[in-house]
Amino acid sequence: MKKDDSDVLIIGGGIVGSTLALLLGEAGWRVTIVDAASAPEIDETLGQGKPALRVSALTAASQRLLTSLDVWSWLAARRVAAYRGMQVWDAEGSGEIGFDADDVGVDALGHIVENELLLAALARRLQALPSVERLSNVRLTGYVRDAGQAVITMDNGEQRRAPLIVGADGANSPLRGMAGIPVRERDTGQAAVVTTVRTGIGHGGVARQTFLATGPLAFLPLIVEGRDDHCSIVWSTTPGEARRLTALGETDEGRVQLGVELARGLGGRLGDVEVIDAAPHFPITQRHAQRYVDDGLALVGDAAHSLHPLAGQGVNLGLMDAAVLAEEWIRARRRGAPAGDRRILARYERRRRNDNAAMLAAMQGFQRLFGSQQPALRLARNWGLSGVDRLMPVKRLLIRQALGEYGDLPERCQATSASWELAEDGKGRP
Ligand SMILES: Cc1cc2nc3c(=O)[nH]c(=O)nc-3n(C[C@H](O)[C@H](O)[C@H](O)COP(=O)(O)OP(=O)(O)OC[C@H]3O[C@@H](n4cnc5c(N)ncnc54)[C@H](O)[C@@H]3O)c2cc1C
After folding, report:
1. Does residue 204 contact residue 248 with C-beta atoms inside 8 Å?
2. Residue 424 pLDDT
3. Which of 211, 193, 209 is nearest to 377 (CA)?
4. Does residue 300 belong to any structural domain of this protein?
5. Nearest by Cα to 150 from 25, 296, 5
6. Which residue has the higher pLDDT, 70 or 429?
7. Nearest-angstrom CA–CA distance, 410 and 388
C-alpha cells in the first residue's frame, strides 16, 4: 500500500483498535494503524508458564466477535479460562448472590484471557491482511482536517492522510484532545491493584468478587497447566492503600503479607493465598466523551469511555463499539454512500452511547451503594443481593448482561434468538 492510500487511520493498536482494523481489513479496506507501543510479540511460548498480569473477562458476545474473526480458536488452543459460576457478596454484611451457567443453559458465563495473548492473536491475523499496515513505536503528535482529509503528524516527523480517522488511543486519548472533543470525568477515589496468585483451594471455575469497606476485591479464575489453583486479582481500593499493597508486592516478605491480606479479604474461601507476581496499581477514573464523532472521525473503546473495572466491562464495550462502527461503515460503502457521512457516524454514536452510558451509571451506583457505611444503604444492599438471588427472572436478566446479551448488538455478536428462547427454559445453549 502506498503511503497515503489508506481509507482509514486508526490511532491506537490496543485490543479495540486492532479488532477494528481486522474487521475493516477483512472487508478489503486499506487501514493504517499508528501505535506508540511496540508490535505485539507472537511467540510460541505465549500461554505457557506464569500467566500475564493483565487479563480481561470477556463476555459471550465478545467471544462470538472474536470467533467470527478467526481469533478465538488460536487463543483457546493456548490459554483461556472459562468460568461457569460467579459469586458476589458483601464482606460488611450478609448479602450474597450466585450465578451459574446452568441457570440460563449456557456452557460458560465468560472467559478470562490474558491481554498480551489476545493482542498477539489479533496481530497474527492482521499480519495476514495485505491491506493493513501497522506503524509501531510512533506517537501521534498532531491532527488537522484539510480538504476533507484527516492529516496526522507523528513523532518521527512523518505525516499521513486519509478520509477517515479513529481514536482507539485509550482513556487519555490524544486524538480526542486534538479534535477538541470534551470529556466528562469523575475520579472514583479508587485505584486498582492487580496481581496473580496461587490458592490453597481450587477455584472450580467460579469468578468471585467481594465488596470490602474500601472497595471490591475480585479473584478471577485462571487455568494453568490444567490446574485450577491460580487467580488473577483486581483489588480496587483507596489510592493510599493501593500504594501500600504495590509496595508489599516488591519484596518476598511483603508478598507473603499481601497473600495473608488477600486470603482474609476473600474470607478464606480459597484457603491460603500465595502471591506470585508484582502488584502494580492503576488509577480508576470514569470518563465519557461528550461526542463520539466529528467530521470523518470516530472514537472507540477507552477513548470514548472508561469505567470502573468492577464489572470487567471495558474491553467488552470497546469491542462492541468496534463491531458497530465497522458494521455501519461497511454497510454504507456497499450502498455506495460515503463512509464519512455525518448521518452514518451519528448512527454509530446512537447505537453505542446509551449502552455505554448505562454501564457507566451502573458502575457509579454500585460504587456508591457498596462504598457507603450508612445503615439504611447497608440493609438495602444485603436485602438486594440476597433478594435478587431468590428471584430467577431477575437473575436471568443480570446473567444476560454479564454475557453481553443486551442492547443493539452488531450482527456478528448476536446469539440466535431461537437459542435464547431455549435457554430461557434452561435447556438450550445460545
Ligand atoms: C485493573 C483493570 C482491570 C480491568 N479488567 C477488565 C476486564 O476484566 N474486562 C474488561 O472488559 N475490561 C477490563 N479493564 C478495562 C480494559 O483494560 C480497557 O477497557 C481496555 O484495555 C481498553 O482498550 P483500548 O484498546 O480502548 O485502549 P488501550 O488498551 O488503552 O490501548 C490504547 C492504545 O493507544 C496507544 N496510544 C496511546 N497514545 C498514543 C499516541 N499518542 N500515538 C499512538 N498511539 C497511542 C497505546 O500505545 C495503546 O496501544 C480493566 C482495566 C483495569 C485498569
Report:
1. no
2. 45
3. 211
4. yes
5. 296
6. 70
7. 30
Q: Is 118 in the pocket of ligand 1 (CB under 6 A)?
A: no
Pairing of strands 85-90, 206-212: parallel
Pocket of ligand 1 contains residue 223 by CB under 6 Å: no
What is the CB neighbour count within 10 angstroms for residue 362?
16
Closest CA to 21 of 187, 181, 135, 179: 135
Cα-to-centroid distance, 77 and ligand 1 (Å): 24
Which CA distances in Å does 375 have to 18, 93, 189, 372? 47, 10, 22, 8
| Most confident region among 56-70, 361-375, 404-418 by mean pLDDT | 56-70
CATH number reported for the structural domain that contains residue 361 in this entry: 3.50.50.60
Range of the domain at 152: 8-81+111-185+286-376
Q: What is the domain count for the chain?
A: 1
Closest atom of ligand 1 relative to the 316 alpha carbon: 11
Question: For residue 211, what are the contacts with CB-CB under 8 A and spacing of at least 6?
Answer: 88, 89, 90, 91, 92, 217, 370, 381
Average pLDDT value for the chain:
90
Question: Hey, which residues does 236 pair with through a beta bridge?
Answer: 192
From CA 328, how far away is CA 215, in angstroms rounded?
39
Residues 131-153 as b/e (b if ≥16 CB within 10 A, e otherwise) read: bbbbbeebebeebeeeeebbbbb
The pLDDT of 217-224, averaged and rounded, is 96
CA dist 28 and 22 (Å) reads: 10
Taking the centre of ligand 1 as the mean of its atom positions, its distance from the CA of residue 306, in whole angstroms, is 9
Within a domain: 264: no
| Rounded Cα distance, 79 and 50, in Å | 11
**Alpha helices (H) along 336-402:** 342-371, 375-390, 392-402
Nearest residue CA, atom 2 of ligand 1? 309
Q: Whose CA is nearest to atom 4 of ligand 1?
A: 309
In a domain, 141, yes or no: yes
Cβ(236) to ligand 1 under 6 A? no
**SS3 for 302?**
helix
Q: What is the pLDDT of residues 243-283, one digit of tens each?
A: 999 999 999 999 999 999 999 999 999 999 999 999 999 99
Q: How far is the C-alpha of 135 from the C-alpha of 17, rounded, in Å?
A: 13
Per-residue pLDDT tens for 175-188? 999 999 999 998 88
Lowest-confidence segment of 217-231, 287-301, 383-397 by average pLDDT: 383-397
Q: Whose CA is nearest to atom 20 of ligand 1?
A: 315
**% of the chain at pLDDT higher than 70:** 90
